[in-house]
Design brief:
CATH class of the largest domain: Mainly Beta
Shape: globular
CATH topology of the largest domain: Immunoglobulin-like
Number of domains: 4
CATH architecture of the largest domain: Sandwich
Strand order of the largest sheet: 12-9-16-17-18
Largest sheet: 5 strands, mixed
Length: 455
């Protein structure tokens, strides 16, 4: 009887299994077959947005940050939804920002630029037939893309280096959301100049000399600026491989400033390029941050002397120019062993979370633990440090912090007793806070100092 019931149950299941197999077979039979491959890339152009994940359907292709590109990747010539997502602190799932449907055609290249705002994003897309290059090619192709809502309409000039722009010789006039298609240029030195429309005398951006290798396509994109750069327009060159290069504006040189956190060392005067007749950073005292100055040399000599006495040199060093950057040169260490810590202000405010950076410039204590906790939280064995084993001179770089009332405390490595007065900050999304740990009159204690914030 039991055997009969099993056979009966099996006989009832058999038609269902046959039907499922039939349905699956039909689905497989109607699925289109790929005949070739097309390529897709993504560019991030939302100045307030964090790094974005770029996905084909739900497959994560990679991350792309502002003014960056995720280079061409090939896909079968089928239909896909390409998505942009971003993660938020405390949220288990990413947020879908935008989606673009592409019916990929073989031997075509598609570029997706996500632009607008987080609240109102949009995707700009164009496609081009793939070009095959040879080793004998002597030209390259450039296209120009405008995704800067702040900039407005501009004229684009791309001529041999040192050519003065003349009305009528512009490559074209372009506004936010527009593109000038690929144009061929023979190899050689060139210069990109962006001017007000119909007014070549009003130069908004003038690049240093550009030399491109023939046999390739390059996309020049105009972005909104952010506080990490000195230029009023962010312009990047994107290559098909995914590499990118930031163009420098000769009218917006990089900037540097100095700060003094070397406890026990007197105030200093700062000079550049061995010109001891002209003080650039006058009378900088402990805990003080100087004003920014332009850096014009490729490699500049920095000399710090006693105030009013150029014969008493406190510290010397060299500064290598980094185009379009802002940096702080911080004097730290003990009086008998001084250092200059060069830190670049590379943070870009994003609207979804605050960011912090803490640099340990204490020379009295060899290793520290750093805590970022909700204000009032006690430190004990159940609470882990956010950054453990911070040695002298090391930086956390810019990291995501939690918004709200946050308390920053420093302890010795693997200990719970604070060796600094806790610092409570009200952190808001879009804020960037730069801090340094410095020595105090008590060699067993340190102090956490906020020296820069955005906004």
């Amino acid at each position: 009887m039991d055997k009969y019931k099993k056979l009966l149950r099996a006989s009832r299941l058999t038609p269902v299994l046959i039907m499922l197999a039939y349905i699956v077979g039909c689905a497989e039979g109607t699925r289109p077959e790929a005949t070739g491959k097309g390529a897709v890339r993504a560019i991030h152009a939302i100045v307030e947005a964090p790094e974005l994940a770029f996905l084909n359907e739900e497959k994560n292709i990679g991350g792309v940050d502002y003014r960056r590109v995720l280079g061409f990747q090939e896909w079968d010539d089928l239909e896909y939804n390409f998505n942009f997502d971003f993660a938020s602190p405390g949220q288990p799932d990413p947020t879908r920002l935008a989606t673009e449907f592409i019916d990929v055609v073989a031997d075509m290249e598609y570029t997706l630029v996500i632009t607008g705002t987080i609240e109102n994003p949009s995707i700009m897309m164009w496609e081009e037939a793939k070009r095959e290059w040879t080793d004998t090619d002597t030209v390259y192709e450039l296209d120009f893309v405008h995704v800067s809502p702040l900039l407005g309409e501009v004229d684009i000039y791309y001529d041999a280096a040192d050519t003065v722009p003349v009305l009528g010789n512009e490559i074209g006039t372009i506004s936010n959301g527009e593109r000038i298609p690929f144009t061929e240029f023979p190899e050689g030195p060139y210069q990109l100049i962006v001017t007000a429309p119909d007014d070549p005398s009003t130069v908004l951006f003038q690049s240093t000399t550009v030399i491109a290798i023939p046999g390739q396509r390059i996309t020049l994109v105009l972005f909104d600026p952010d506080p990490s750069i000195t230029a009023s327009i962010g312009i990047n060159a994107f290559f098909s491989s995914g590499e990118n290069s930031q163009l420098a504006d000769i009218g917006s040189p990089p900037q540097v400033r100095t700060m003094h956190v070397a406890f026990g060392t007197d105030n200093f005067d700062g000079y550049l390029n061995n010109d001891l007749e002209n003080i650039v950073f006058p009378n900088v005292s402990f805990g003080e941050l100087s004003n920014y100055v332009d850096l014009t040399e490729t490699i500049a000599a920095l000399t710090l002397t006693a105030v009013g006495d150029t014969t008493q040199i406190i510290k010397e060093g060299e500064i290598t120019r980094i185009n379009n950057s802002k940096r702080s040169l911080i004097l730290w260490g003990s009086p008998d062993e001084l250092f200059i810590r060069d830190i670049q202000h590379s943070a870009r405010p994003v609207s979804t979370y605050p960011q912090i950076r803490i640099t340990n410039l204490s020379s009295n204590i060899s290793m520290l633990d750093l805590y970022e906790l909700e204000a009032g939280t006690a430190i004990n064995e159940d609470v882990s440090p956010n950054f453990s084993g911070a040695i002298a001179g090391i930086t956390t770089n810019f990291v995501v912090a939690s918004s709200g009332s946050r308390e920053f405390t420093i302890t010795l490595n693997d200990e719970q007793n604070p060796i600094s007065t806790p610092v409570v900050l009200e952190l808001a999304n879009g804020e960037v806070v730069d801090m340094v740990i410095v020595d105090t009159v008590d060699p067993s204690m340190v102090e956490l100092v906020v020296f820069d914030t955005i906004p």
